[in-house]
Amino acid sequence: MMSDLVQVGSAAPPPTELIFGEWYPALRADELRKGKTKTAMLLGIPLLMGRRNDGKIFAMRDLCPHRGIPLSAGWFDGETVQCKYHGWRFEPCSGQCAEIPSLTGHDVLDATKIFANSFPCEERDGYAWVYIPEPGTGRVGDALPPVPETPKFSERYRSAHLVADLPCNVDHGIIGLMDPAHGPFVHQAWWWRSRASIHEKTKHFEPIPQGFRMSAHAPSGNSAPYKLLGVYGEPITTTIDFVLPNRRYETIRCGAKWFSSLTTVTPVTASTCRIDVYAAWNVFYRVPFVTSIATFFGARFVRQDQETMVQQAQGLRFNPALMLIDDADKPAKWYFALKQARLKGTGEHPLAGPVTLHWRS
């Protein structure tokens, strides 16, 4: 019925609002080598990133505070970043100015009181995570939320990562990520599922801080990857969490065997985003080439999503009015409600308690 639909678009939608005050993955940490720099973009902010000689990674706004020229046009010697325009030098982790070559003995300006914008930057799961504060908050202190990390349940495990650029805003990327009904149509493959595999599902959800959880349940019996775990003869359970601003955690347990993943949809600009998937597991740990095999099939899976969203972006150029239905689109409704509560600072949660949803997929 029309009362079950929610409008999420209009003829002239406003730019997508972005959530600041959070950690976002900027790029793979192995791209940052000692004495070298790379550029990146997060939330429309141009970044200069690199690794000092002592191994510490950094992220600076790619703009000199003097005249605005990109710092990436200059030089990095492993210790300081030097601007190409007037030679100003900055310690990259703090952003503190170390030298202004034009100053003379007659000047009273203390160069060390000048700072270029720098951002907290940490390595987790092979990614360089950058904390982007709220605009206008000034220098960031030490009281930051923990850096996101994929759950792991044993010391020995294998891992892999995937990345795909999406030509849509972060909202479309995220509701596409949590959409439970597209699988049989977008991900048709002999090793996954087909349209003929559609059947009714019942899932239980519960609220968690800044998000919601699909409670522990037996995974779908029509998915070949899950069937492989059956060789261990243990019950299989799956738990899926979505946490603001952009994180989907999935954990699959089968006795001592486990698989977990963290998928993020990161806003690059207000109109583009990027999906990153990091997975870790101890399933078939001793099987040769298991990482290469998992990466191959995972890449195909993500590429199918990417191709579909590229096609969707062609339609979104015309700013159509869109709709969300119950129950399959209820998680998307929760996401929009959580995001608005976060942006408005109300703290309201759309789930008052456990909820059961039904859909066919």
Structure, described:
It is a single chain. This protein has about 350 residues and is of the alpha+beta class. About 15% of the residues lie in helices and about 30% in strands. It has two domains: about 20-130, Rieske [2Fe-2S] iron-sulphur domain (Rieske Iron-sulfur Protein), CATH 2.102.10.10; about 160-360, Naphthalene 1,2-dioxygenase Alpha Subunit, Chain A, domain 1. It is built from five helices and 21 strands. β6 (about 75) and β7 (about 80) form a beta hairpin. The relative contact order is 0.16.
Let me know the largest β-sheet.
8 strands, antiparallel
Strand order within the widest beta sheet: 13-19-18-17-16-15-14-21
Q: What is the overall number of helices?
A: 5
CATH topology of the largest domain: Naphthalene 1,2-dioxygenase Alpha Subunit, Chain A, domain 1
The CATH architecture of the largest domain would be Alpha-Beta Complex
Low-confidence stretches: 1-14
Characterize the overall form: elongated
Structural class given helices, strands, pairing? Answer: alpha+beta
Protein name: (2Fe-2S) ferredoxin
GO molecular function: 2 iron, 2 sulfur cluster binding; metal ion binding; oxidoreductase activity
InterPro entries: Cholesterol_7-desaturase, Rieske_2Fe-2S, Rieske_2Fe-2S_sf
Keywords: 2Fe-2S, Iron, Iron-sulfur, Metal-binding, Oxidoreductase
